[in-house]
Amino acid sequence: MTPQAKIFATRSSMKIAQKMADAYGSPLGKVEINEFSDGEFQPSFEETVRGGRVFLVGSTMQPSDNLMELLLMCDAAKRASAKHITVVMPYFGWARQDRKDKSRVPIGAKMVANLLMAAGATRIMTMDLHADQIQGFFEVPVDHVFASSIFVPHIKGQKLEDLTIASPDMGGSKRANNYAKWLESEVVICYKQRKKANVIDKMTVIGEVEGRNVVLIDDMVDTAGTLTKAADMLLAKGAKSVQAYCTHGVLSGKAIERIEKSKLSRLVITDTIPQEHKSEKIEVLSIAELFAGVMHKVHHHESISSHFLEN
């Protein structure tokens, strides 16, 4: 008989973890966080995890305490003799640092992978990595879940005529092409040049958008500079409407202000990152049932290949 899996969460991911636990059919485990006056903290499992599987749910968006808390929980589970420690990271922070793009910089994604494995993670579950090759940074199994299994049906439900899928940059061309294939639509690519991070110098579009309803697809929206500039440019090129689907709503800096002022008709994101922002233009879809289904199959050693669309 397979022992019952237990689900725990970091403080910042408690809301999505509770949704996952409800969908899984298991109560959310109890974790106490002891805080010291200098800001240091210590997680403590308030129930046994010996010999079983634990799912540790925690997105690693800023601040970096979120990553540290997840690492400490991994170490605590390992020292409490958990047999399987599956880290469920809906949003994998530092994923944009997947290579050396100039001299004397770290590969942050690789460092995070090393830290998680050193802390005791025996399996990783995440969604829409910024670069697919990050899976190769781990020496443990990685379940890479895709938001396309949520987004594609949602887009189909709009029954848009003259649909064109667009990537806001060259790096997302593969993702956009796959969405276009599933939706049987045309695809265009926005080409941007940057002088530095989060600052766009020039942008143009490869392909025709005149008279089309355009849906921009990306793995994340951070400052929303690229997204809003792409939307304005596409409309200037003759598009009938522009909306966007982005998995991770980082929404830092003036992102909300930019979205509100832009000509984007709608931005659809998921709840991989807790959303405190309020905007009539932003719609949030939950990934809880998708992850709960994958977690259930992983725990019972069942295939997950038919559970989601691939990017």
UniProtKB/TrEMBL annotation:
This entry's Enzyme Commission designation comes to 2.7.6.1
InterPro entries noted in UniProt: PRib_PP_synth_CS, Pribosyltran_N, PRTase-like, PRTase_dom, Rib-P_diPkinase
Q: Kindly indicate where the leader peptide sits in this chain.
A: none
Q: Which residues form the Ribose-phosphate pyrophosphokinase N-terminal domain?
A: 6-120
The keyword Cytoplasm appears for this protein: yes
Task: Please give the PROSITE patterns that the UniProt record associates with this protein.
Answer: PRPP_SYNTHASE
One of its GO biological process terms is: purine nucleotide biosynthetic process
Kind of enzyme, top EC level?
Answer: transferase
GO CC list: cytoplasm; ribose phosphate diphosphokinase complex
Q: Which reaction does it catalyse?
A: D-ribose 5-phosphate + ATP = 5-phospho-alpha-D-ribose 1-diphosphate + AMP + H(+)
What keywords are assigned to this protein? ATP-binding, Cytoplasm, Kinase, Magnesium, Metal-binding, Nucleotide biosynthesis, Nucleotide-binding, Transferase
Q: Name one GO molecular function term.
A: ribose phosphate diphosphokinase activity
Reply yes or no: does the keyword Ribosomal protein apply: no
NCBIfam families, sorted: PRK01259.1 (NF002320), ribP_PPkin (TIGR01251)
Which protein is depicted?
Answer: ribose-phosphate diphosphokinase
Tell me the organism.
Croceimicrobium hydrocarbonivorans
